[in-house]
Specification:
Two copies of one chain form a homodimer. In chain A, 47% of the residues lie in helices and 25% in strands. A four-stranded antiparallel β-sheet of chain A has the order 1-8-3-6. A four-stranded antiparallel β-sheet of chain A has the order 2-7-4-5. Chain A has a four-stranded antiparallel β-sheet with strand order 9-10-12-11. Chain A is globular, with a radius of gyration of 19 Å. Chains A and B meet through helix 3 and helix 5 of A and helix 3 and helix 5 of B. The first copy, chain A, binds a DNA duplex (30 and 30 nucleotides) through helix 8.
DNA sequence: TTAATGCCTTGACTTTCGTCACACCTCGGC
DNA sequence: GCCGAGGTGTGACGAAAGTCAAGGCATTAA
């Protein structure tokens, strides 16, 4: 149980709770493990739980009739998902898939809503997080509407940099680069175009790629060139 | 003051407050008038207020360096905007312009945050509203990523129908159709393409247009054909 | 009334990018 | 070590849609 406490303490959403309160939260939820590729949440189903990622990564996707998919977000440890259905009672609007082995902490609907009512600080964190997601979504809409393929791929690379990149005097190193197909689904373009754009960026000296590690040589310059 | 009460009572965000509480809210805010085309909020500025629309319409836009714009949302009476900057303290992420004469009720940052802390019901409404906006944004991202021009324009028409359309046995009438340029900025396409698509939909018998009133002949069929 | 402005329509041309096809490379399992 | 699967690189081609250009219609301004 003390292990759960340490985990919960580092989840931004619960940052304002003290240990006694966190103990209560720990008791409300339970853990579940998923293998790479497992579906955690299925679109159109009714939502019954909020998920907080303990370890691993997940992608949130929407799929059309022909099976093409868009990746709406990628979440890693400490982040949560599944709150929307709980908040408005509507069906899940997207599917969530584990992109690596993952362990999740889940809280059921009823308990989560009680939590919100009991601890306004949690509601406020939640508001802040939703706001941030909305900002990201708006930026994404802008990119998809106004940028060409190069700009959209650059945008994805910069998002990855902001999210998981290691900054080091102007350079940014992104390890564990997603598959090109996934980057394409984030950028709203095709796999081939992602490949071509990445090579184009390399030729121009903006980035370097070794294995699945990508380095942006000059973050500011790259950003300015494409955003 | 009683007039303000009647207005506030019909704002969904304050639906759970009783009259005494609404009186307090009324005292916290003030009204301001804007002419068509006036800028209400400017991107990059710091946000100092939340706006609730009393009468009129506004569009929320983001613009790129070359002056091309994306319309992120269109809001009408009873709806609010400007909350994001207040919640996370970051600069405004979009510009808001009056698309008609408009009167707004505004509450300053401090007062609004106090309101949230004092009335959790308001925070909950706000969570529900942000959730809905996030769902819409996700749907928009899906449409921009996966649909061709026809599908994206159809999507905009359906959004307008859901928003301001009058349903009548299968048909939906949308009056006060936005300019084609604005529809293009919502659909992430060009003005000319919007024109062409609308004519294409008319030829196929999906819709009819007279002046700036558009009629969808069979809502379900139209939706099925393009979404 | 005429001029001017703003919005929509339509055609022609051009560019971008998605699709298809296929080669190549790496890695894990047998 | 070999095979197969999954992932990536690259050329050729065509379709979709952006851009440019010109004209029309309607409302407002002079």
């Amino acid at each position: 149980m003390t292990e759960e406490l340490i985990f919960l303490r580092n989840v931004p959403m619960f940052a304002d709770l003290d240990d006694t309160e966190l103990e209560k939260v720990a008791k409300l939820g339970s853990r579940k493990k998923y293998k790479k590729g497992n579906i955690i949440v299925l679109e159109k189903e009714m939502g019954a739980a909020l998920f907080v990622i303990v370890t691993g990564k997940v992608k949130v996707v929407r799929t059309d009739e022909e099976g093409r998919e868009v990746i709406l977000s990628i979440f890693g440890s400490g982040e949560f998902f599944g709150e929307m259905s709980l908040l408005d009672g509507l069906a899940r609007s997207a599917t969530v898939v584990a992109t690596s082995k993952a362990e999740l902490f889940m809280i059921h609907r009823r308990e989560f809503l009680d939590l919100l009512a009991e601890y306004p600080a949690v509601a406020i964190s939640l508001l802040a997080e939703l706001t941030m997601r909305l900002r990201k979504a708006d930026a994404q809409i802008k990119s998809l509407s106004l940028k060409d393929a190069a700009g959209r791929v650059a945008n994805v690379i910069l998002l990855l940099a902001d999210d998981v990149g290691v900054f080091k005097k102007g350079k940014v190193v992104v390890e564990d680069l997603p598959l090109q197909q996934d980057m394409a689904n984030m950028a709203g373009t095709s796999r081939e175009t992602v490949s071509r754009m990445i090579h184009q960026f390399m030729e121009k000296g903006h980035i370097g790629v070794e294995g699945n590690t990508l380095t942006i040589n000059n973050y500011e310059e790259f950003r300015k060139a494409f955003l």
